Amino acid sequence: MDKRKRRVRHGMVKERARILVVGGGYVGMYTALRLQRKLKRELERGEAEITVVSPDPYMTYQPFLPEAAAGAISPRHVVVPLRRVLDRCRVIIGEATAVDHAKRTATITTLATEEEGTGGRQLAYDELVLAPGSVSRTLPVPGLAEHGIGFKTVEEAIGLRNHVLEQMDIASSTRDPALRDAALTFVFVGGGYAGVEALGELEDMARYAARYYHNLRPEDMKWILVEASDRILPEVGEEMGRYTVTELRRRNIDVRLETRLESCADRVAVLSDGSRFPTRTVVWTAGVKPHPVLAATDLPLDERGRLKCTAQLAVDGAPHAWAAGDAAAVPDVTAPDAGRTCAPNAQHALRQARTLGDNIAHSLRGEPLETYAHKNAGSVASLGLHKGVAQIYGRKLKGYPAWFMHRTYHLSRVPTFNRKARVAAEWTLAGLFKREIVSLGSLEHPRAEFEIAAGGKPSQDPPHDPKGSS
């Protein structure tokens, strides 16, 4: 008799089901949260076990990263602690480096395994949810690894905020015109959500901060957006994309379409149109790619390296394996033409996670599976304080209404009432008091002062990686 059938009796899980969730991002956390609710009785009776493996002890709500970088939201309110939210799950802080689905095992490395020097350990499972998310897609641009700054994590967002304010401090105090010019030149590569929102929020913050420097003016700063295609923010539509370009250029932001970054070696940004900009800031937001762990599995992948999935969010041809979000190629059943897959955005990830949690519970109980079907409701993007663009159900918004819609939508989507209340309180206080413009760059090297006092040489992590990892 099939193992799946032996598990089911009167709609309940008969045998113990070990569910492994790889990833603690949108899909990983929300799937585990859904399973906690759907399998509450089974978890209490010990008939099911949910294990979540995540490199961080928190889930980052990435749409709030630009506001965290601008100081509108405290960094700790952009993240959700997994152990608090997933109180019925076993949370392991580590990474899955390989998956052998034929044997139902995953290789896991943790901080403890690194200290012990024993290598990865094997973790057995019955049901697998692969939701490791994505990593930055980089190109072999000379100097990028040495000088580039990413914008995918809360550490990178806060590190970038500190970096921008430090460059303003350098420009304010130097007597070298060339150093001043390089310090006040900020190059952002990538015209998607991350690049445009990060640029818009940080330019807004720096413009405000400049009033507190006796020898700096907003006009002294150069903000440059480099995009390889002929449009930015394709998610909000062509018309709103053109409006965004116009709005950014009105703010003295140099938007360069159909242009690529060819080099940033020696702290000089060289563009494909021949322009050269001495700069100490190159922010790379030019897309993402599937997490490397997907290539270390025996599961089917598409041409882009994503897991081939069915509309029920099961990995195609691999029983008991499930996936969603950036790591999965999920058929878009609402699209007019066949063959299209769901866009890798937060809107789909959140909804897929709910369906995924439901379907795993249905599968364990022998019930019919649900088909994931969601038509994109639209997109919203912030361009700084009181500025934004949006396209919601075909309606186009810009300026303050779009910015307000952006905040309202994402406040409704950030997990837990605790985080909603804290973010709303911070926005309220920000409207009553002046913006914070303090740089806490020393947080990235907290032992530096003590090491000098103790007679040692302070260690320095790479400026583009606050975590100190590559």
From TrEMBL:
<feature type="region of interest" description="Disordered">
    <location>
        <begin position="449"/>
        <end position="470"/>
    </location>
</feature>
<protein>
    <submittedName>
        <fullName>NAD(P)/FAD-dependent oxidoreductase</fullName>
    </submittedName>
</protein>
<dbReference type="Pfam" id="PF07992">
    <property type="entry name" value="Pyr_redox_2"/>
</dbReference>
<keyword id="KW-0285">Flavoprotein</keyword>
<dbReference type="InterPro" id="IPR023753">
    <property type="entry name" value="FAD/NAD-binding_dom"/>
</dbReference>
<feature type="domain" description="FAD/NAD(P)-binding">
    <location>
        <begin position="18"/>
        <end position="352"/>
    </location>
</feature>
<dbReference type="InterPro" id="IPR045024">
    <property type="entry name" value="NDH-2"/>
</dbReference>
<keyword id="KW-0274">FAD</keyword>
<dbReference type="InterPro" id="IPR036188">
    <property type="entry name" value="FAD/NAD-bd_sf"/>
</dbReference>
<keyword id="KW-0560">Oxidoreductase</keyword>
<comment type="similarity">
    <text>Belongs to the NADH dehydrogenase family.</text>
</comment>
<keyword id="KW-0520">NAD</keyword>
